[in-house]
Amino acid sequence: MLQVVAAALLDADGRVLLAQRPPGKALAGAWEFPGGKLEPGETPLAALARELDEELGIVPLDAEPLIRVPWLAGRRPLRLDAWQVRRWRGEPVAREGQALRWQPPAAVDPAELAPADRPLLHALRLPAHYAITPPDVPLDQAERLAARILAVLDAGSLVLLRLPRWPTAAVRALAARVRCTRPQAALLLHSDLEGARDLGLGVHLTAAQLRSLDSRPLPWQRLVGASCHDAHELARAAAIADFATLSPVAPTASHPGQRPLGWQRFAAAAEAAALPVYALGGLQPTDTHLARRHGAQGVAGIRAFWPDA
Asked: What range(s) does the Nudix hydrolase domain occupy (predicted)?
C-alpha cells in the first residue's frame, strides 16, 4: 500500500492552504492539500515535515491527526494520513511552481479537489458533535424545540431533524424557520431528499436509501450523511455521502437486544472508511475524546444532547 501524508495548514484567520496539481501530473488542475509519499523507513510526521519543507519552505511546529483515508489510485491502494497544522516556522511559498491559495474551509468547492482530498475537507469542516432530535417531541412543542435547536447550533454542533411522529410538512416548516434565523445553519433533514432540495439543506440517508442510490443525491454544497452499521455500509457511504454515523457503539436503552460494536470494532471499521465517521449509540458528549482516539470524527447522540427537550 502506498503511504501518503497531507497537511491542512490553518492560518490565524481559519483559512486553509490548497495547492494545485501542475500540468503533466495525474489530475492536473485539481486542488489538494500539500503533502506527498513516505520514503522507506520514514514515519508519517517525519514525511510531513520533509514534504512541507520541500513544497512550501516551512517547518511544522505542531500537528494533530485529522483523518486517515484509504483510497484506490488506479489499481494501487494508498492510505492518506492527514494532519492539522496550525503553527509553523517560515512563510509558505510555492517552491515547486505550484499555484497556492488560502480559503476558508466552508468556501472550498469539493468538486475542485482531487477525489482523495475531499474526505479531508469534510473532516476539517465537520464539528465534533452531531445532535439528533429526540423522536418523541410533541408537535405542540415546535416553538420550544426551535429555540433549543438554535442553541445547539450556536454551540457548534451539527443537527439532524429526525421527528418521525411529525407530518412531513411540519418538519419542513420547522427547518425553514431555523434556516431563516440562521442562514448558514448546519442542519440536515432525515431521509427527506425532496425537502432538502427545496430548502437548500443537507440530508441524512437511511441505510435503505443508501442501498438504493447510485450517485450523490445533492450538490456538493449540501451535506449528505448516512446511517451505517457495518464496514460494508460504510464503503457504500463513501461513494455517496460526505460522512456517516456508525452504530451502536455501546448498549442503548432504545435497542436493548442489539449487540453493540464496542470501540475495537468501531475503530477497525472507521479506519477502513474513506469518509468521516461519527460514533453513535449509548454515548455522551463527554465521550468525544475517547471517540477521537478510536478514529471517529466525534460523537452523535439523541437524549444526551437535548437534556431539556
From this structure: 1-126
Between residues 111 and 254, the one the model is more confident about: 111
pTM above 0.90, yes or no: yes
CA–CA gap between residue 19 and residue 37 (Å, rounded) = 16
* Residues facing 301 on adjacent strands: 131
Q: Among 112, 108, 115, 109, which residue's Cα sits nearest to residue 239?
A: 115
Starting at the edge strand found earlier in the chain, the sheet holding 16-20 runs 31-32, 16-20, 100-103
Report, as an integer, the average pLDDT of 128-144: 95
Nearest to 219 by CA among 200, 233, 237: 200
- Among 283, 297, 282, which residue's Cα sits nearest to residue 245? 297
Domains identified in the chain and CATH numbers: 2-109 (3.90.79.10), 129-305 (3.20.20.70)
Summarize pLDDT for 51-85 with one digit per residue, the tens. Answer: 999 999 999 999 999 999 999 877 789 999 999 99
Cα angle: 259, vertex 264, 270; to 5 degrees = 95
Sign of the four-CA dihedral 113, 233, 225, 151: negative
Secondary structure of 2-15 in the HEC alphabet?
A: EEEEEEEEECCCCC
Taking each helix axis from N to C end, the angle separating 142-154 and 168-181, rounded to the nearest 10 degrees, works out to 40
Please say if the pLDDT value at position 186 is more than 80: yes
What's the pLDDT band for 304 if we cut at 50, 70, 90?
confident
Mean pLDDT of the chain: 94
CA 29 to chain centre: 24
